[in-house]
Design a protein that fits this description.
The complex is a heterodimer of chains A (521) and B (347).
Chain A lengths: L6 H30 L2 H9 L1 H34 L5 H13 L2 H11 L6 H26 L2 H9 L4 H30 L2 H4 L6 H12 L2 H26 L24 H28 L3 H45 L3 H11 L6 H15 L7 H11 L1 H12 L4 H9 L4 H12 L1 H16 L2 H7 L7 H9 L8 H22 L12
Helix pairs in contact in A: 1-11, 1-13, 1-14, 1-15, 2-11, 3-4, 3-6, 3-8, 4-6, 4-12, 4-23, 5-12, 6-8, 7-8, 8-11, 10-11, 11-15, 12-23, 13-14, 13-16, 13-17, 13-20, 13-23, 15-16, 15-21, 17-20, 18-19, 20-23, 22-23
Chain B lengths: L3 E10 L2 E11 L4 E6 L5 H9 L6 E6 L2 E5 L12 E4 L11 H6 L4 H6 L1 H9 L16 H13 L5 E5 L7 H18 L3 E5 L2 H7 L2 E6 L2 E6 L1 H6 L4 H7 L3 E8 L2 E4 L2 E4 L7 E7 L4 E3 L5 E10 L4 E7 L7 E5 L10 E6 L4 E4 L4
Parallel strand pairs in B: 3-8, 3-9, 6-7, 7-8
Antiparallel strand pairs in B: 1-2, 1-4, 4-5, 9-10, 11-12, 11-14, 12-13, 14-20, 15-19, 16-17, 16-19, 17-18
Classes of the chains: A mainly alpha (521), B alpha+beta (347).
């Protein structure tokens, strides 16, 4: 039924319009910069033979890593959510953990593991085994939302469990799966941190080189303009692919938990496969960290000890930056998520899509664009802590929106209506009903943005105020020396923080139900 | 509690008129059931009364003071003191039963818990329910908690939106009794919205039939059932046998013989409406009919009869007799009580 809300929605629309404008800002700056250098700069950048190699490298990594993420993500989600896998909660945590481990740490771990992993194999592998949790999370939530009655009906129509999976379940998972694969592909296209240690040439690295060497913002902008176009093609391609096929529940469905299948003789092979995935995703960075400590000479360890005085200030800055960015991202994401779920229409879609543009923005390029904007238009922000907080919030805004949207969508309007009828005002209703019910999403949004900011070295390198340093920048500075041991303490704290983030994320995950687009009321 | 008065309330969404000139008065301390098919505009009327939406025309007044008027006066829902029981209860999933019930109370009363216990008691739920979570309750218990939550702040009017939908028959009856007694104990002025005829007739002091956005008839259940304003309403509130006939001076002649009608003014060609339970089997001076089938419901049985003199269509007769005739038997049928008559549409 049509809903009419008075002043509240006008305010919501205004806030969302502001967020949308902020979200589009960095890309607008890049486009302007790219054209300021003249179209010839873009033509040169695009036609250079090195560009073609970079393009091929970037696209190839994406093409190889994305399907692997799809298989691991869907398989993992299925076994955790729908089978009697032993230790399901632990597996869910371990399967998500790689997402929160900073990529530059993982990257150094892989690089030191062996020369064979440097280059393409390592690049594709590191993307696949870091980003599959995105697919895992989205598919797992989607699996919970499926109506078990559909599977029962399929079984009664003579389909065996395998046929049910491919003909009934997988098609319903399509929106979640496509969404997840899109995010992985975009991340692969814009990845920077992961490839530094692997000496693998992609666009992002070249952009950084251009920026560092000549402070050539227009050259960098021209190059990144290219990668942004690539991302936009993907972003809208997915929208076309998904089209109207928003598989929403036709009926409210049977309200009971879905059946879990016995693994039977598949139990050990499944456990072994999952263990292998976890060993690669979590085992390699943690294992290498231990080796850096254990295998270091006493001379190297003494440098490490000398570095310890920087550990606390670096941790403090890192945590402060992560928490601030998460809260700012939450403030921006919440109105957009509410609007997207409650008010369907062109404006709501536009606002939501505009926040997703950050997906198409390499961290580094976004940071460069914002620093350029600050220098030219808001000098007082340049080199300030506020600017980097805003940059990180903006970069990870899409994750916050996606996380929020899931739980905000679950809030039946009848709950808020009841509160209003009980004499509670709109703001108090938001505080006492909307926010607590959406809590799993709020927590997920905060934790995700926090975890990603831990692993975001690129932004820190461009925007971090000169007198500050984070765990990431310290790790980077020390890992370029021969003695990895001196970088190890910083990596250790980062991994502990990221594991804690994964734990918080997954402890709230059990209460998340379905992410369906169905309109209620 | 207070009187609720809607005067010429109208609402449209774009070009679609949802409510036309609705006039409704719910006297203090009584329950009016709004009966309508889906899409008749009953939910819109409810949302107008609560204040989630504003009327295009007309006024809504509670206790004599206007809360909504077309000139822009609009008291927001949280200032109206209108209790609302949503479909399926809409309990807050993050709160316990007690916290749900206390939700609308001022902070001080929320802490003391006495009103919470009182409200739970009203709906027949003991203190053992206080610490439970909504998902631990059955469907019927959820509806009761929903009502307790709405009643706790002592609203001026209570609105119930299909409060028994989705409950099975026995639970439905039990919950309905609990709701009725709770509303009576509070002396509540209440509006119940439903598409279920039995529910509306059994619970409402008055029943308002909403049809395509207009109130077709507002009357006590007996008047509505015995003397509906037209055949549509007659068929909507219950099963109806409709036969052609001629009327004169309070008497009608039709295939079931000469029958009495309360409508002494009716004359000429008319349509006669008889409820199936008015048909009496084994009447001494009745007309003959063949039994062509029957459907057994437990307390009552519905027979399909074909009249010997008028074989066009079978008529239904509801009987509470313990033994009923079989298919193929011939019975003599008469009619109990006065019948309703309507102008013949063909005339």
């Amino acid at each position: 039924m049509t809903r009419q809300r008075g002043g509240a929605s006008t305010g919501l629309f205004a806030v969302c319009a502001l967020v949308a404008i902020l979200a589009v800002l960095p890309i607008a700056i890049i486009v302007i910069q790219a054209f300021q250098g003249g179209t010839s700069a873009i033509r040169d950048a695009v036609s250079a033979s090195s560009s073609r190699t970079l393009l091929r490298n970037t696209v190839l990594v994406s093409l190889v890593a994305t399907p692997i993420c799809g298989v691991i993500g869907v398989g993992g989600a299925w076994f955790v959510e729908r089978t009697r896998l032993p230790g399901r909660r632990l597996w869910a945590l371990l399967l998500v953990a790689p997402l929160t481990v900073p990529l530059f740490v993982t990257s150094y771990a892989w690089a030191t593991l062996g020369v064979a992993l440097q280059g393409f194999v390592g690049a594709a592998g590191i993307i696949a085994f870091t980003y599959y949790p995105i697919v895992f999370l989205l598919v797992a939530v989607s699996l919970r939302g499926l109506d078990p009655a559909l599977e029962d009906s399929a079984r009664s129509l003579g389909l065996n469990p395998r046929q049910v999976f491919f003909r009934v379940i997988l098609p319903q998972l399509r929106p979640a799966l496509l969404g997840g694969l899109l995010l992985v592909a975009l991340d692969a296209l814009v990845e920077f941190d992961a490839f530094v240690a692997l000496r693998f040439q992609t666009f992002s690295l070249d952009v950084y080189a251009q920026y560092r060497l000549g402070f050539s913002t227009s050259g960098a902008a021209a190059l990144s303009f290219f990668s942004i176009v690539l991302c936009l093609v993907l972003l809208f391609g997915e929208a076309r692919l998904r089209g109207d096929a928003n598989y929403t529940r036709v009926s409210r469905g049977a309200r009971r938990p879905p059946v879990r299948y016995e693994l039977g003789r598949w139990k050990w092979p499944v456990l072994a496969s999952l263990a292998a995935v976890v060993a690669i995703g979590v085992g390699i960075p943690v294992g290498m960290l231990i080796r850096w400590f254990a295998g270091s000479s006493s001379a190297a360890l003494s440098t490490a000890t000398g570095n310890l005085q920087f550990l606390w200030p670096a941790s403090r800055t890192t945590i402060l930056l992560g928490v601030s960015s998460a809260l700012v991202a939450l403030l921006m994401a919440l109105p957009v998520a509410l609007l997207a779920v409650r008010h369907r229409g062109r404006f709501a879609r536009l606002a939501e899509r505009s926040t997703y543009l950050s997906f198409a923005l390499p961290d580094l390029v976004g940071a460069i664009a914002l620093s350029y904007a600050a220098v030219h238009y808001a000098r007082f922000l340049y080199g300030s802590f506020a600017l980097i907080v805003f940059a990180e919030a903006l970069l990870f805004l899409p994750f916050a929106v996606v996380a929020m949207r899931a739980t905000v969508g679950q809030i039946e309007p009848a709950l808020e209506d009841s509160a209003r009828a009980l004499g509670v005002g709109p703001l108090a209703t938001f505080r006492r009903v909307t926010l607590p019910v959406a809590r799993p999403g709020v927590v997920a949004a905060i934790v995700l943005v926090f975890a990603f900011s831990l692993g975001d070295l690129a932004t820190a390198q461009v925007l971090l105020p000169l007198n500050l340093y984070t765990l990431g920048t310290e790790f980077q500075a020390n890992s370029s020396t021969v003695a990895f041991a001196s970088a190890a303490p910083f990596a250790a704290v980062l991994i502990v923080l990221s594991m804690a983030a994964a734990y918080v994320l997954m402890s709230g995950f059990g209460t998340v139900r379905a992410f369906t687009d169905d309109e209620r009321g | 509690m207070a009187e609720l008065r809607c005067t010429t309330v109208a609402k449209s969404y774009g070009a679609r008129d949802v409510l036309h000139e609705v006039d409704l008065v719910v006297p203090e301390g009584t329950l009016t059931a709004i009966l309508g098919a889906s899409g008749s505009g009953k939910t819109t009327l409810l949302r107008l009364i609560i204040g989630f939406i504003a009327p295009d025309r007309g006024t809504i007044a509670i206790d004599g003071s206007v809360v909504s008027a077309a000139d822009g006066l609009h008291v927001p829902p949280d200032k109206r003191e209108v209790g609302y029981v949503a479909q399926e209860g809409a309990l807050f999933p993050h709160l316990t039963v007690a916290e749900n019930v206390a939700f609308g109370l001022p902070r001080g009363e929320r802490k003391s818990g006495s009103r919470t216990a009182e409200a739970l008691d009203l709906v027949g739920l003991g203190s053992s329910y206080a610490s439970r979570r909504p998902h631990e309750l059955s469907g019927g218990e959820q509806r009761r908690v929903g009502l307790a939550r709405a009643l706790a702040p002592k609203p001026r009017v209570v609105l119930l939106d299909e409060p028994f939908s989705g409950l099975d028959a026995s639970l439905r009856a039990e919950t309905r009794d609990a709701v009725t007694s709770a509303l009576a104990a509070e002396g509540a002025t209440a509006v119940l919205v439903t598409h279920d005829q039995a529910e509306a007739l059994s619970m409402g002091r008055e029943v308002a039939v909403l049809r395509a956005g207009r109130l077709a008839q507002t009357a006590t259940p007996t008047i509505l059932y015995r003397a509906p304003v037209d055949l549509d309403v007659a068929r909507f509130v219950g099963d109806a046998i409709v036969l052609p006939g001629t009327a004169a001076g309070g008497v009608v002649d039709c295939a079931l013989g000469r029958l009495r009608t309360a409508n002494v003014a009716a004359a000429g060609k008319i349509e006669v409406m008889i409820r199936p339970e008015q048909i009496r089997l084994g009447a001494v001076d009745g007309v003959s009919a063949d039994v062509i089938g029957h459907r057994y419901y437990g307390p009552d049985t519905v027979l399909q009869l074909r009249l010997r003199d008028d074989a066009r269509s079978p008529i239904a007769a509801r009987t509470f007799d313990v033994t009923v005739p079989d298919a193929g038997d011939v019975v003599s049928v008469g009619v109990l009580g006065p019948v309703a008559v309507f102008p013949d549409p063909a005339a």
